[in-house]
Fold this protein.
Amino acid sequence: MIPKIDSDIGIGLYTTKFTGCGGKIRSTPQDFAVSEILSKKVTDSLSRKESYAVYRLTKSGIDTNHALDLIFKKTGVHLKALGLKDAHAITTQYVCSTGQNKSLPNYSDEKITLEQVGFAKKPLSGKDMIGNSFIIRIDGADKSIADFAESDKILNFYGYQRFGSKRPVTHLIGKAIIQKRFADAVSLILSFTSEYDTKENTKLRKEMMDPSNYSKALQIIPPQMDLERTILAEMTAHGDPQKALHKLPIGIRRLYVEAYQSFLFNITISNAFQYGEELFAPQQGDVCFDKNAKLGKYEMDPLQSLAIPLVGFSYFKKTRFDYHISKILEQEQIKPSDFYLKEMQESSNEGGFRSASIICTDFSIQSDTVKFSLQRGSFATMVLREIIKPACPLEAGF
């Protein structure tokens, strides 16, 4: 049986026959270790000649954005991350200076360690990080874990984090934005409640269902609800939801639209798999990624992987998946052109392609610990979901 939260974010099935070993992840931060993998081209090009400084950032108990804020407050130097890592793990990632010759001494405290690894000729970007390697202990896994052998049969679903985890609302906000229901988007940000959230948060969000309570809520809202605080302040000042949304960081506004795009993708591969489409190998006429992640036509190359369209204003219809995507868009009352927003152009999304299945390499299981590497953009939680088969993913640490 599929957990309700899976269905809420468009995940309609499991693709492995394994019955599940049970257990929990992230019982301690030490149970979940992730390390970024830089491209060989980048690692070979790093030098000692001063230019854009590159660092290895190892952290625990703090997310990437707050770690970089901490470094800036201590040093006055802005560093840019190639990817975001959450607080509930031991993470190793690469960060880069945004200006030339602004190198920092190595630094360490109880949460972060910053170690310079060299200099790059130009600032690194997310494309220079090609994947992540994971070492994850599953607390309480039964002995059947040793029998899992289907790491090549897992669909490339977007994971719980994309949608807000305990409060799966980001895709709903994104849909409201592209439908230009800006008042609904504001209401969802402030007052959407979830059975998985804390009682304190739920109580406050119920208060914020009534706009007449906005001024009162602004006085008591906790610091961690920084986005809600921004919205409340704007709505209290002028009551214009579109202007209020514009006060949010541009990355957050884009994330909302991308989350809805992710929801549509999850439904697409769920429906296509149930329909009987081949999703683990490309066929004649398919769009594919090659070994260098470049898009092209299927050429009977065993290193090619199937690519499925992501809906946006430049949605590519000429694939065998348009049958499924068109039905979904009709049900959602959405058109690809809706992803172009004249009122909020910076949040517009042209679409693209995503691998249909997870490419999981270096997979191994020893006792209760799983090791593997994933391509950039794939979610380790989707691999673990197939291994554990949790009755309640959030209670199981997802």
